[in-house]
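Whiteboard transcription, Tuesday session. T.W. wrote the structure tokens on the left side:
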């Protein structure tokens, strides 16, 4: 189900709770909402649809992906980026890393670990910041 985009900074600033099996419906809604906004958005976190759970969805070179409880294990090659956000107006500067290693759970609640680089890595970092309540 496509959800309304949350623009309430009080909700966006809250740290997300860990996601579990009963949050898989939220993950599906998040993916549906991201796809509905694909013309102007490449990633979303669950708090952007008003649910403070640690779930992100994003578009990568291999298609759409959903991560529950993503954690960055390693990062290298820092750089400064300027990013926009569907939930917030304007752009903001952010410190990002060109390469990150992430551990997460997929939609089957299986733990996965993978290294991401470039723009996909930047998207993931942006969405994980949302899960931490960082206003980007």
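and on the right, the sequence the group agreed on:
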């Amino acid at each position: 189900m496509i959800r309304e985009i949350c623009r309430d900074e009080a909700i966006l600033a809250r740290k997300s709770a860990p996601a579990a099996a009963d949050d898989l419906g939220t993950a599906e809604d998040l993916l549906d909402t991201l796809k509905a906004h694909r013309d102007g958005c490449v990633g979303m976190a669950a708090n952007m649809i008003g649910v403070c759970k640690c779930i992100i969805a994003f578009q990568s070179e291999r298609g759409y992906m959903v991560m529950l409880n993503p954690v960055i294990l390693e990062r290298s090659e820092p750089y400064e980026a300027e990013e926009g956000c569907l939930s917030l107006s304007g752009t903001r500067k952010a410190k990002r890393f060109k390469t990150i290693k992430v551990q997460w759970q997929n939609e089957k609640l299986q733990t996965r670990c993978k290294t991401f680089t470039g723009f996909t890595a930047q998207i993931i970092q942006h969405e994980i910041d949302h899960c931490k309540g960082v206003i980007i």
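Someone added at the bottom: The helical segments are 9-12, 24-36, 118-131.
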